[in-house]
Amino acid sequence: MSPTTTALVTGGTSGLGLAVAERLLASGVVPVLLGRGEERGRAALETLGGRAVFVPGDVTRPEDVTGALDAAEHRGTLRAVVNCAGVPHAERVVGRSGPHSLDRFAEVVTANLVGTFNVVRLAAARMAANEPVGQERGVIVNTASLAAFEGQAGQAAYAASKGGVVSMTLPLARELAGSLIRVVTVAPGFFATPAVAAVPAAARAELDRDLVHPRRWGDPDDFAALVAHVLDNPMINGETIRVDGAVRMSSGLRHHDTRNTHHRERPDTGEASST
Ligand SMILES: NC(=O)c1ccc[n+]([C@@H]2O[C@H](COP(=O)([O-])OP(=O)(O)OC[C@H]3O[C@@H](n4cnc5c(N)ncnc54)[C@H](OP(=O)(O)O)[C@@H]3O)[C@@H](O)[C@H]2O)c1
Question: Where are the annotated segments for Disordered (predicted)?
Answer without folding.
Answer: 251-275
